[in-house]
């Protein structure tokens, strides 16, 4: 094969190549606007980028659907098991303390302490939720918030103000 054919063949293939229908093509039009479509049309403008279609294998798709169903079931179960305090605040996964029920508050605080991976703000929020529906325990609630490690002073003041009177 002559040398010039070796050079021309890739250019010829490149010129004949058109993106498939599932590709996303980004055009910059003459007026400067950007158009994204799956239709190849040189009259639209200059093709800036072509993103190839990435088909998902059937097994991965079925796995994702099953995972979504599992998550939906988890949320339904969580909503059904949600407790409500005396003032109507919903606490997920924590027993709602009965008014000034010491054992309920202590159990709730133990559960917060035993939950790993909470940010300081999340921990303080959950501690305050343990006191929702109580009365006369404001000082204790504020001490509990103050004992939250790595809580900024602004966050501490915010959550202390949320303690019930």
Beta-strand residue fraction = 5-15%
Task: Give the number of DSSP strands.
Answer: 5
Number of spatially distinct domains? 2
The share of residues in helices is: 40-55%
Structure in a nutshell:
The chain has helices at residues 3-16, 58-80, 102-113, 120-130, 138-146, 153-161; strands spanning 24-28, 34-37, 46-51, 83-84, 90-91. The chain has 165 residues and is mostly helical. It has 2 domains: 20-54, no CATH class; 80-161, no CATH class.
Describe the structure.
- It is a single chain.
- The chain is mostly helical and 165 residues long.
- It contains six helices and five strands.
- Strand 4 (83-84) and strand 5 (90-91) form a beta hairpin.
- Helix 3 (102-113) packs antiparallel against helix 4, helix 4 (120-130) runs parallel beside helix 6 (153-161) and helix 5 (138-146) runs antiparallel to helix 6 (153-161).
- The longest helix is centred in the middle third of the chain and has 23 residues, at 58-80.
Detail the topology: elements first, then pairings.
Layout lengths: L2 H14 L7 E5 L5 E4 L8 E6 L6 H23 L2 E2 L5 E2 L10 H12 L6 H11 L7 H9 L6 H9 L4
Antiparallel strand pairs: 1-2, 1-3, 4-5
